[in-house]
Write a structure and sequence with these properties.
5-stranded mixed sheet; 12% strand; 9 helices; alpha/beta
Length: 286
């Protein structure tokens, strides 16, 4: 999981990835007002020790309506929904504001800049946790409603986004999500071919290299455990490799899916067995 988080951090350390993520998947008015030419990655030395522990997260700032807007991206490889995510994001946002004031980026008495917390989620189940801290709170006695905190975050559920996005969408974040959710080596090969064409410009060499590293060290080992991935240096080499081995790897990929299904079935059986045992115990207790 840590390898996956670091791979995402590498990819979203490129301004083009942040731009494509926001323009492609955030259908909100403020996105159109951003000056993406001003995108700046916030240095880790900019934040306190408390916030620096969130080493897998990425913080960018971009000019919006004459001021800075901060994009705080929580990058975690989560297979399960975190019901308390709104609490965590509220804490991280408070730490960021604290550090902006401490460092002098925001003058004492001045308005605090907008901060958009984003959660990238890649789980098989759709996200069901509340998107606002206020929704986690119970009823407040009369008069206390005014102290009810409101702290919303932006969820990007990759599985849902990949399914909804057009296959021909020319967007790097979309390509990443489609590769993550690819069902066959053929699907992955098609995305890789398009990605290699989009990043042919020499100015995109660093981003192209980051994608190559992520595919080789994170995506393929996760998809094909135990398979020796040949040494490749470029996206086109990865695409050619998949084309050569597509038949062999399709068979292995399907077998992996069958085995994973069997393991999930056994886990589900054990969960049901434990639940039945608890119910029987309760009935005997009565």
């Amino acid at each position: 999981m840590a390898q996956h988080d670091q791979g995402y951090k590498l990819l979203f350390s490129h301004p083009r990835m942040i731009q494509d993520l926001l323009t492609g998947f955030v259908a909100e008015e403020w996105v159109a007002q951003l000056d993406f030419s001003t995108l700046q990655k916030v240095s880790t030395s900019f934040v306190s020790d408390d916030l620096r522990e969130r080493e897998d997260d990425v913080i960018w700032r971009v000019r919006w309506s004459g001021q800075w807007l901060y994009v705080y991206m929580l990058i975690e490889f989560q297979r399960t929904v975190d019901p308390m995510m709104a609490v965590r994001l509220s804490t991280y946002r408070g730490l960021l504001y604290q550090d902006l004031v401490r460092s002098g980026a925001v003058a004492v008495g001045a308005h605090l800049p907008p901060v958009v917390p984003i959660v990238l989620y890649n789980g098989t189940q759709r996200w069901t946790a509340p998107l606002d801290l206020a929704d986690l709170l119970g009823p407040h006695p009369g008069g206390l409603e005014r102290y009810r905190p409101v702290a919303r975050y932006l969820l990007l559920d990759e599985g849902a986004l990949a399914a909804a996005a057009p296959a021909n969408l020319r967007n790097l974040a979309s390509a990443l999500f489609r590769m993550e959710n690819s069902r066959t080596p053929e699907d992955l090969r098609d995305v890789l071919f398009a990605l290699a064409q989009w990043l042919r410009d020499p100015a995109q060499a660093d981003l192209r290299r980051s994608f190559t590293v992520w595919i080789k060290r994170v995506l393929l080992p996760a998809r094909m455990p135990g398979i020796d991935v040949p040494h490749v240096n470029d996206l086109e080499e990865v695409s050619a490799m998949l084309a050569e081995r597509v038949t062999e790897w399709t068979r292995d990929w399907k077998q992996q899916g069958i085995e994973e299904g069997r393991r999930e079935g056994r886990r589900e059986g054990r969960r049901e067995g434990r639940q039945e045992g608890r119910q029987e115990g309760l009935q005997e207790g009565r």
